[in-house]
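sanity check this record:

:::
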Amino acid sequence: MNALIKSAKIVDINSEFNGNTVDILIEKGLISKIGSDLKNPSKIQEIHYNNLHVSAGWFDMRANFCDPGHEYKEDLNSGLKAAAKGGFTGVMVMPDSEPATSTKSGIQYIINKTKGNIVDALPAGSLSHNCEGKEIAEMYDMHSAGAIAFTDNKKSVSKSSLLNRAMLYSQSFNGLIINFPNDREISNSGQINEGIVSTELGLKGIPALAEELMVSRDIFLAEYCNSRIHLSNITTKKSVQLIKDAKKKGIKITADVNSFHLLFDETELLHFDNHFKVNPPLRTKEDIKALITGLKDGTIDVICSDHTPEDIENKQCEFDHSAFGMINLQTSFSAANTSIKNKLDLAEFISKLTSSPRKILGLEKLEVAVGKKANLTLFSPTEKWTFNKEDIVSKSKNTPFIGKELTGKVYGIINNNKIEIS
């Protein structure tokens, strides 16, 4: 694959060209030249856009693809198409499919089925067998087969002894443990954030305490085991403070936030729109402010999509019975960018999609530099656009973004000697 990218501003904290507007020549999938006014050597494809920015390829740490088991909602192929449209050149696939990705063969299924795609699909293995929270899964075998982390996804590990054993066991091969902090005995049957809005609507709330208790427990376990842990789906002000304090103590903890939790607050639920029903729930404006501050000061390391497809039968029904989740791979960057523009330096923001997730997962460091593999995302941080239903490439359509104007548009990706331009 050969291409010449013209007049692109580099956004890459690892690159000597960061902040510079240059041309980038790509030959046979590698960056061969970076400079001003580069000549097209053999009439290869030229890429021009207004206010074009280029960064290292984005990576999403939370993609639910429902494959195997519920391919009618999303399969690996359709999920990777959505990732490409959203600017991601890599995704981590969550393991709680049916059956769960709990064995070496489950890891190999994902790797083999997605081989050769422009988007790299890297599987997470389940922390417990079948994500049941009872006994440790075959973690070392999955690690050897290509699992890059271990988690039960939204099935938060409630047994402290199980998480303790997993954290100690994973140290032998430097495995990463990821937990979604949610005390299910407290959040049980809750529908939205516990607060004024839940009281007005007469809905059972999910208290911030359900998250914060689990964050606190996981921090104590990480300190006790002297082990790494990544906390996923952080949403509350107090959680941010707990993680900040833990990092100051030198505890090996990292965290992520979903992009839609930076943009939407609990008042979106006032009209009982099921598309805003997510887990963890949309919180308060004060929580959003704390999350953005946490991104700014490094307390929160990564921004994720938490792409969660659901079919119409599970979503468009009575609110109490509606499934949690929204599709978000195609809108994740734009949602975060719309919320935090001018609050974080652009390179600092993009690092939450590029270098930070890859560092946490122990993946190869990417760099926009001569001689490096062309693993790139092309985008504009300022272009306004409206997401329409016909834009959706996922099998499921459960999104509140239809008809909403967003700031920040993806133009395409380059990876694995392939190019996809919108």
Remarks:
- The chain has a mean pLDDT of 96.
